[in-house]
Amino acid sequence: MTASPAPKSFLLSAELADYLVAHGTPPDAVQLALIEETAALGPIAGMQISPEQGAFLTILTRLLGARRAIEIGTFTGYSALCIARGLPADGRLVCCDVSDEWTAIGRGYWDKAGVADRIDLRIAPALDTLTALDAADTFDLAFIDADKPNYANYVEALVPHLQPNAVVLVDNVLWTGRVVDPSADDENTLAIKAFNDKLAADDRFDVVMLPISDGLTVARKR
What we know:
By secondary structure, the protein is an alpha/beta fold. It has one domain (14-221): Vaccinia Virus protein VP39 (Rossmann fold), CATH 3.40.50. Helices cover 38% and strands 20% of the residues. It contains 8 helices and 7 strands; from the N terminus they run αααβαβαβαβαβαββ. It is globular.
């Protein structure tokens, strides 16, 4: 079984994508099984993050020494699994999603990976979950991979809950290259372009955009 049926990055050939994954920490048996089950869902499986992005999430979580993390957009749970594995045993990850059906797939794999007790899954619109957070609820790491028109709203709702030096990761910021296509005027592309411009100019963050998968922005809270 291959780690990924096709590269998520439009910048990579299939051969380079395979080489890249093979020369990093590869997905283990639990992760591969989750990738395979998600792939069986059909085209919607494209919402799952790539294996190299998952490895990056785990490594970055560990490098930051993160203890409290939050994820907006969980889908079938691969990114949550990767972040949770980077947390200490007493760390916690709040997962925000609206789908019982998709997240139910992830729950079984979180159990198999031994990280289910680190994950607090909240089924509700993410902005509702963020609004309901207590002032004392703070995070060292946030990962946003959800509906594109709300990206800016998610960041604004997160800011009061971010520790100094906390990192916000935002997925799909290159949007298969459409962000530089002047003829692309669909809602998602326009939303991502506006968000990218806004975050790059936000003096509350240090920002770098990386060509990982479909583009990943790393924003450090000053």
